[in-house]
Design a protein that fits this description.
125 residues
Length: 125
């Protein structure tokens, strides 16, 4: 797998979840940067314009996914987002309001499912 958008931003406040996601994605040759909250995520997006996908935990210590998606829109970021949560899909922001949201991954997710979903979303259209 090669290309300009093979970098993923993993945003999760749980260090163990971040580390597992990083390792899984690195094993399938995807570069990973990470953040533990929304402000760090915005900083990583600004620092790495080549991020092709964000694996975003829906509940972060400083803001929820909807707030982060709103701030991303305001700052001109249209990076694809794969939302993740252990609380279910119902409370998540809609893809109509945020067209860059491309799916949901329920926690706990398997490493195989994570790798497959991320690779599918990073494939060129």
């Amino acid at each position: 797998m090669s290309g300009s958008n093979q970098r993923v931003l993993v945003v999760d406040d749980e260090p163990a979840v971040r580390k597992i996601a990083e390792r899984v994605l690195q094993r399938v040759n995807i570069e990973v940067v990470s953040a533990s909250d929304g402000e760090q995520a915005l900083a990583q997006l600004a620092a790495h314009p080549d991020i092709g996908l964000i694996l975003l935990d829906a509940t972060l210590p400083d803001m929820n996914a909807e707030r982060l998606l709103y701030l991303m829109q305001r700052r001109g970021f249209s990076t694809l987002v794969l939302l993740s949560s252990g609380f279910g899909e119902e409370c998540l922001p809609s893809s109509e309001e945020f067209p860059n949201v491309r799916g949901f991954l329920a926690k706990p997710y398997s490493v195989v499912t994570l790798a497959q979903r991320v690779q599918e979303l990073l494939e060129p259209a």
